[in-house]
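Late entry, written up from scratch paper. The run itself happened at the end of the previous shift, but nothing got recorded in the book at the time, so transcribing now.
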Amino acid sequence: NALPDEDQIVKGLGMEYMQVPVDFSNPLLDDFYAFADSMQRNTGKKTLLHCQVNARATAFSFLYRVLYEDVPIAEAKEDMNTVWQPNEVWRDFIFEVMAQNDKDPNCEGCDWTPPPPRN
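Output as recorded:
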C-alpha cells in the first residue's frame, strides 16, 4: 500500500477498495485478470486506479482499454507513453496478455522498444 491504512481511508470515504498486489519485476497473467474482473464487475462506476510508481496501473489500464473497451492500440499506447514506457519485462508481459487474447500489439507508429535502464 502507498499508505499504511489506505484501505481504511478509501472505505471511510464510502468507496470500495480492491488491491491487486503485483510484483513489479514479475507480473503474472492472474494479476491482470484479477484487475480486469474487478473492472468488469464495476462497469459504469467511477474508478480510481493507481500504484506507487504508476507503471503497473498504466500497463493494466492500457490492456483493459484495448481488450475490453476496443480502444485502438495506437491510441492506448500513446496515452500509456505519456505516463510510462514499459521496460522489457512489462513489454513482454503486455505482449503475452495480448497474444492470449488474439491481439497483435504492433500498430502504425507503435514503438515497443524499451527505454534504456536507469542507473
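The chain has a mean pLDDT of 88.
(Scratch paper discarded after transcription.)
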